[in-house]
Design brief:
alpha/beta; 3 domains; 25 strands; 8-stranded mixed β-sheet; 542 residues; 17 helices; 7-stranded mixed β-sheet; Nucleotidyltransferase, domain 5
Length: 542
């Protein structure tokens, strides 16, 4: 028998084979159990041993059973544990033993998706011919079998599988797909998934920061989604012990080991907010999401709200954002946010106006860099929004909030280097001391890539910081005297009081011995010092 395109290892179409009783029994076993098929008939290339049978480890068998049993699976796994090879074995089983079964392989880069397909093709070549289907299509991007089943490889993008119908979508290393691309992908792909009642989705990845994969994993573990989670630890791989861990850390770093083998969601280094703090920030789904507006708390008539606005050009790149914060009490709390990168500057003021009206005529501070001035002018002159904070420029003090009675005032603020520096420092303090509650995933995700670049902070390449910049403006506000007077809150005083209480607890006198001699008081500035004659002096209060 001449093979497909002259390859004797591949069965061409139209070839009829007669099966022995033993082969028929084996085919039945393979159909019933994908783990049996993979362990018995799939071959892989080992670096040291060459072509060998796939001797599956117990956790790899669990992976396959998890894929087979559940419609939605998500796996958080270390590097170099055979996760891609195991997944390839299951996809091979699907197209061999199911008719008209379509699989889409997606990776963060197209050539990586093609590499997974090549592993499947390699394993296929070494199957016995009596297990194979006839080959219809066989190339770097796709294969199609005589039973109507097929596999195609794509880069993960918003157009990757649009227009197709698939029974299984496999997402490899999804944590490494840029955040904006991941969001767009699910927006365009979910209709493909939901078009059938049995379509499977398998997501397998090593963690890489607080991104879309992180959100999906947390939602799965907290049972907020239908995904079934599976976690693998590096110690589950035979031969990996404490000695192996120590050697690996010496050859890489502690941080790299934590992320790639301990599967911790460690983000970028040099972030404004330390990673350990970011991982403690719990997010929750908004109460409602309407055309870019996510509401975490409905407005209440007895609360005071502040909106800060970051403006963009609305051409599908940077986002126009609004952060709405409840400032009635401390800690402050983010209650709503708006985010859209297609809203035109002429329409954005109406969005801001409607959000502000919903939240009790919220006080408003907007940046006026570039198109921001146009947005603020429309809000003030055309929509006549009343509660816009005014900014006064001072020769030495720079920009500061003003009641607006002097001539040199303007609506909105220029995001200058001093403003950004103060805002970033205040935001760091507010978040780390839990004086600003943020439960929005998009903001937490942006904070995870908001890193120091030279003497400032900005988003890492390929990421956005527009929501963070809205909070930077809010944080700058909290240091302004007029803000504290207007909202009747003073975060600086609150922090000083808590710091004072901490110092009192930390340095509480261990005891005063009374020798029966008369004491006298001595004032040193505003502090009272108790002086015991012949015993020196010690503070009685701070």
């Amino acid at each position: 028998m001449q093979g497909y395109l002259g390859n004797p290892k591949l069965k061409p179409t139209g070839v009829e084979l007669s099966y022995t009783e033993e082969q028929a029994i084996e085919i039945a076993k393979c159909i019933d159990d994908p783990v049996y098929f993979i362990k018995t008939y799939v071959k892989i290339v080992n670096v040291d041993r060459g072509l060998i049978p796939f001797e599956m480890w117990p956790f790899q068998e669990d992976m396959v059973r998890n894929f087979h049993k559940n419609r939605f699976s998500i796996c958080k796994m270390p590097r170099q544990v055979g996760k891609t090879t195991t997944s390839a074995g299951y996809m091979l089983w699907c197209v061999l033993f199911k008719e008209n079964f379509s699989v889409a392989i997606l990776a963060n880069k197209g050539n990586l998706a093609q590499d997974i397909l090549s592993r499947i093709q390699y394993a296929y070549e070494y199957l016995p011919l009596w297990l194979q289907q006839g080959i219809v299509v066989w190339n770097k991007r796709s294969l199609e079998l005589e039973n109507g089943s097929k596999i195609a490889a794509f880069a993960t993008s918003n157009s990757g599988v649009r227009g197709g119908t698939y029974n299984l979508i496999f997402l490899d290393e999804f944590a490494f797909v840029p955040q904006n691309m991941a969001n767009d992908f699910f927006t365009s792909t979910y209709p493909v998934i939901s078009s059938g009642k049995t379509t499977k989705v398998i997501i397998v990845s090593t963690p890489y920061g607080l991104n879309h994969f992180y959100k999906m994993w947390v939602d799965a573990t907290e049972k907020r989604s239908l995904y079934t989670p599976l976690e693998v630890h590096w110690s589950m791989v035979p031969g990996r012990d404490q000695k192996w861990k120590e050697e690996t850390i010496r050859n890489t770093s502690e941080e790299q080991f934590q992320q790639e083998f301990e599967t911790e969601f460690i983000g970028s280094s040099a972030t404004l907010i330390p990673g350990i703090i970011l991982r403690q920030l719990a997010f929750r789904d908004p109460l409602s999401s309407i055309e870019g507006l996510d509401i975490h708390e409905m407005p209440r008539s007895d609360r005071t709200y502040v909106m800060t606005v970051d403006c963009a050009e609305g051409v599908g790149q940077d986002y126009s954002t609004v952060a709405v914060v409840d400032v009635t009490d401390i800690p402050y709390k983010l209650v709503a946010k708006y985010r859209d990168n297609n809203i035109a500057p002429l329409l954005f003021p109406t969005i801001i106006y409607n959000i502000g009206q919903r939240y009790n005529g919220a006080f408003l501070l907007a940046e006026t860099n570039n198109v921001g001035q146009q947005v603020v002018d429309i809000l003030h002159y055309e929509l006549e929004y009343e509660n816009i904070f005014k900014i006064q420029k001072h020769v030495t003090k720079g920009q500061h909030l003003s009641a607006g009675y002097k001539k040199a005032v303007s609506f909105g603020i220029k995001t200058t280097t001093p403003v950004k520096k103060i805002g970033c420092a205040n935001l760091k303090t507010l978040v780390e001391t839990k004086k600003l509650i943020i439960e929005d995933f998009d903001i937490i995700s942006e904070l995870n890539t908001f890193v120091k670049v030279r003497d400032s902070y900005e988003a890492e390449e390929g990421n956005h910081d527009d929501l963070v910049m809205a909070l930077v403006l809010f944080s700058w506000l909290t240091s302004q005297t007029f803000f504290r007077e207007t909202t009747n809150s003073d975060i600086r005083r609150r922090l000083m009081e808590e710091s004072k209480m901490h110092l009192e607890d930390e340095y509480m006198p261990i005891g005063i011995f009374d020798d029966g001699k008369e004491e006298e008081k001595m004032y040193d500035g505003e502090d009272i010092w108790t002086v015991a004659k012949n015993r020196g002096y010690m503070p009685s209060t701070f």
